[in-house]
Amino acid sequence: xxxxxxTGVCTALVTPFLDGKVNYPMAKTLLKRQVDAGIKSVVVxxxxxxxxxxxxxxxxxxVRCCKEQAGEDCLIIAGTGSNSTAHTVELSKQAExxxxxxxLIVAPYYNKATDDGLFAxxxxxxxxxxxxxILYNVPSRTGIDIPVSVYKRLCRIPNIIGVKEASGEISKVxxxxxxxxxxxxxxxxxxxxxxPAMSLGASGVISVASNICPEQMxxxxxxxxxxxxxxxxxxxxxxxxxxxxxxxxxxxxxxKEAMKCLGYDCGGYRLPxxxxxxxxxxRIKQFFL
Length: 289
What we know:
single chain, TIM Barrel
C-alpha cells in the first residue's frame, strides 16, 4: 500500500494582504508558525487563501515564497483549479515548476460538467504534471457534487491520490472508501467533521481552524490516527465554538479577523469579500479576550 502524502492536519493558509497586495513576508511568518506547531503540510491559494481574486502570478509567487520558507519541513500544496481545463493545466505546470509538492484541484464550477466531463478534466490535468493531484469537492461553492462513481474511475490514475471532500455529507466518506482503491485517500474539508470522518477512515483534515489553533488540531488528529477517539472527540468538542465562529460568515472573512486578534494582521479582503459585520467583529474579539 502506498504511503499517504500526509495524514492528520493540513492547514489551508490565509493569504495576507498589505495595501491591497500580497504580503509575502507575512505569508512566511504565518507558515513558520504552522511548522513550529507541528504542521507538516499546507495549502496555499485555496479557498481560505482567496484564490478567486489572486492572479496567476500571485499564486505562483506564493508557492515559490512558501517553498523557500518551508524547505523539506512542510509540504506545499498549491490550489490551481479553475473551470477551464486548459487554464488549470497551465497553472498547475507553473506551480510544479515553482516547487509545489502537490496540487489541490477544485471541481470545475459554473460549467455544469457531466460525469464524463469531470473525468476528462481531471485526467487531462493529471497527465500534464508529475506531482500528486488531490481532487477538491465543495459543492456549496462550485454548484457541482463529484459523484462517487467518478472517484471510482479517477482513483486508478496513478498521480490522483485522493480527495478533499467538503460536501458535508459524512456517509460519503464510507461510500468512497467502499468504492475506491485502498490507496485513495480522503481528507475532510469540514473542521467540524474531522473526528467523525477519521473514525470512518479519512486520513485527516484540510483545515481552516488550524490557522488559529494549529497545536490543538495536531493533537486532535494525532489522537484519532492513534485510535484514541475518546481524546480526539474531547478536543473536537472543545474546538466546536471556535469552528462555529470561523464559519459565522463566508470563509475566510472570520478567520482573517481572528488572526488579527492573535497579533497577525493579515490585511483586508479583495472584493467581493468584505469585512465582517460589526456584530461578528465584536463576537470574534470577545472570544479571544
